[in-house]
Specification:
The protein is α+β, with helices and mostly antiparallel strands and about 375 residues long. It has helices at about 5-25, 30-35, 40-45, 65-80, 80-100, 105-115, 230-270, 280-310, 315-340, 350-360, 365-375, and strands at about 120-125, 140-145, 145-160, 165-175, 180-190, 195, 210-220, 225, 270, 275. GO terms for molecular function: acyl-CoA dehydrogenase activity; flavin adenine dinucleotide binding.
Length: about 375
């Protein structure tokens, strides 16, 4: 068993780390404070090939593996959780469904510009009454001639305000059991009847673009159907499995940032004549943080490795997502505690890590849903 990163993976880690520290970290506080999406940063990320990192070169990508992509998400997330979320969503949720289930024509038309960073990608699954219960989707798509007419509403959709297209899920009929048949469609955001508003006031990941989408008699050609019309549900479950690896990697990045800040502060903060890093209470906190972060990172790498080997990874991606996101919240909370009163202040950044980490326990399947996924994979 080889735990060493390949030369290519080490190069990607170095490149993304340097980019994130130079281009993202210095503006992270301002992005959070103003809830500003760093459009210029994403243009540079596109130029570096990061938005196409795990896709083949024939589709405008960089030909990297899932581990390399997870490394990139971690490094970007370490600098800014909101920016990391938009990056992860663009690749794992927005572009990946087109790569895995699209026709060759769809890949050339839609995936290539996404992988090249000419636009961002969005995935419209969540609805006001269909979050964890994705099977309860209310958006409908009715076939009329050679077009589908789509009506419905999507909420909390990452990157929709900066995307030329959004892949949405919609009910197209009933199966023999009377359950909804859910299909996926590529919808150009400038289509007549598409309305996108991006005015959510969020607790955290404020640098990510989050929008509501209303689809009012939106017509898309039949060739915009993505994959098998009757397997849309399975398609987005597969998409979510891969997305959970990226969210877990983002959580590791946030947790690492919180730990790094806490360790430095503990060595500088003097109380009772010595640095607080000398106190056992602080040492135990730091030891637990370091241990959990390392375990979470290893779980991310294992899930990514399984995906690259085309082996089943549903259970492992749920392990990674569950453990890493809860680790990120615990590490951020302990970082604030180690900072004391300073930790409550924006300038020390650890309070932002806590706010950003909380979303990761909710999005891409809540912690409760991850436990259900794991239990079912165990045969319960």
């Amino acid at each position: 068993m080889d735990f060493e990163l390949s030369k290519e993976q080490q190069m990607i880690k170095k490149m993304v780390k340097e980019f994130a520290e130079k281009e993202i970290k210095p503006i992270a506080i301002e992005l959070d404070e103003n809830a500003r999406f760093a459009e210029a940063v994403f243009k540079k990320m596109g130029e570096l090939g990061l938005l196409g990192l795990p896709f083949p070169e024939q589709y405008g990508g960089s030909g990297g593996d899932t581990i390399s992509y997870a490394i990139a998400v971690e490094e970007i997330g370490k600098a800014c959780g909101g920016t990391g979320l938009s990056y992860a969503a663009a690749v794992s949720l927005g572009s990946s469904p087109i790569y895995y289930f699209g026709t060759e024509e769809q890949k050339q038309k839609y995936l290539v510009p996404l992988a090249q960073g000419k636009t961002l990608a969005a995935f419209g699954l969540t609805e006001p009454n269909a979050g964890s219960d994705a099977g309860g989707t209310k958006t409908t798509a009715v076939l009329e001639g050679d077009e589908y007419v789509i009506n419905g509403e999507k909420c909390w959709i990452t990157n929709a305000g900066y995307s030329r297209t959004v892949t949405i899920t919609a009910v197209t009929g009933k199966d023999h059991r009377g359950k909804n048949i859910i299909s996926a469609f590529i919808v150009p955001t400038d289509s007549l009847g598409v309305s996108i508003t991006c005015n959510y006031e969020k607790m955290g990941v404020r640098a990510s673009n989050t929008c509501a989408i209303v689809l009012d008699n939106v017509r898309v050609p039949i060739e915009n159907l993505l994959g098998d019309a009757e397997k849309g549900f399975k398609q987005f479950l597969h998409t979510l499995d891969g997305g959970r690896i990226s969210i877990a990697a983002l959580a590791v990045g946030i947790a690492q940032a919180a730990f790094d800040r806490a360790l430095i502060f503990s060595k500088e903060r003097i109380q009772f004549g010595q640095s607080i890093s000398k106190f056992q209470a602080t040492q135990f906190k730091l030891a637990d943080m370091a241990m959990e972060i390392e375990l979470a990172r290893n779980m991310v790498y294992k899930a990514a490795w399984l995906k690259d080997k085309k082996q089943p990874f549903t259970k492992e991606s749920a392990y990674a997502k569950l453990f890493a996101t809860e680790t990120a919240f615990r590490a951020s909370n302990q970082a604030i505690q180690i900072h004391g009163g300073s930790g409550y202040m924006r300038e020390y950044e650890v309070e932002r890590y806590l706010r950003d980490a909380k979303l990761l326990e909710i999005g891409e399947g809540t912690s409760e849903i991850q436990r259900l996924v794991i239990a079912r994979q165990l045969g319960c």
